[in-house]
Every structure is written in structure tokens, then in C-alpha cells.
């Protein structure tokens, strides 16, 4: 029985180093493919380079992104890393206007609270 121990260890190492990572890569590739197929115009996305933009048009293997008003660039579909949540437009209704010095740090104008006595 002891003569098979090295063979069992070798088989176990093969499974841990080859088979398990291959399954993980396959799962990640399937998720990326599903995300790329679900792209629609108007969706905010981030590329693998970290560039944020909005999908304007879709080709067979390309995606046109608007990265600034009137600036459209073309990327390969594989360069899209993730679909982002839409940005909130403007302040929320319950938040008041920002007033300088209205936070816990004290006056922003260098008033008496900022001077040492």
C-alpha cells in the first residue's frame, strides 16, 4: 500500500494544479461572455483599462463608447470589464445645499475656532 502513496500524491497534485484552475477560468470566461452579450446602448460600462463610458452602438466584435459629450471611441467587446450602475444625477431631495463650515471640522473661513488662544 505504501508503494502507491507517491502515485496518489501525484494524482492529487495534478487535480489541484491543473483541473481546478481550468474550471475556474472556464466559469469566468462564461460570465464575461454573458456580460458582453447583455450589453445594450445606454448602459454605463468600465473597460479593462479603467475607462468609464456609455455604450452608444454595438458591432459584432466591437462596442462604441461615449466617454465625454460628443467623444465616441471604439473598443473590442472583450475590453469591457463590467457594466456599472447608472450615476445619480444631482443631489438627492432630502440633502440640503452644501454650506462651507457646516460640518464637524468647524468653520471653513479660518474663524475663531481655527485660531490658537
Distance between the termini: 84 Å
Ranges where pLDDT stays below 50 over 5 or more residues in a row are none
Specify the helix fraction band. 25-40%
Total E-strand runs: 5
Number of helices: 1
Query: What order do the strands of the largest sheet run in, or round the barrel if closed?
Result: 4-3-2-1-5
Give the class-level CATH name: Mainly Beta
The name CATH uses for the topology is SH3 type barrels
Number of domains: 1
Major β-sheet annotation: 5 strands, antiparallel
- Radius of gyration from the alpha-carbon trace, in angstroms: 27 Å
The assigned CATH architecture is: Roll
The succession of helices and strands, N to C, reads HEEEEE
Brief account:
By secondary structure, this protein is of the alpha+beta class.
Structure description:
It is a single chain. This protein has about 120 residues and is α+β, with helices and mostly antiparallel strands. The chain has one domain (about 1-85): SH3 type barrels. The chain has one helix and five strands, in the order αβββββ. Strands 4-3-2-1-5 form a five-stranded antiparallel sheet, with helices on one face. A hairpin with a 2-residue loop joins β3 (about 60-70) and β4 (about 70-75). It is rod-shaped and about 70 Å long.
Amino acid at each position: 500500500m505504501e508503494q502507491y502513496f507517491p502515485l496518489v500524491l501525484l494524482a492529487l497534485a495534478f487535480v489541484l494544479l491543473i483541473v481546478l484552475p481550468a474550471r475556474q477560468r472556464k466559469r469566468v470566461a462564461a460570465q464575461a461572455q454573458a456580460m458582453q452579450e447583455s450589453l445594450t446602448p445606454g448602459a454605463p460600462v468600465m473597460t479593462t483599462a479603467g475607462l468609464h463610458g456609455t455604450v452608444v452602438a454595438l458591432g459584432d466584435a466591437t462596442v462604441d463608447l461615449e466617454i465625454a459629450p460628443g467623444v465616441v471611441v471604439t473598443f473590442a467587446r472583450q475590453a469591457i470589464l463590467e457594466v456599472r450602475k447608472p450615476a445619480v444625477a444631482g443631489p438627492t431631495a432630502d440633502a440640503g445645499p452644501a454650506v462651507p463650515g457646516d460640518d464637524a471640522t468647524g468653520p471653513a473661513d479660518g474663524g475663531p475656532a481655527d485660531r490658537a488662544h
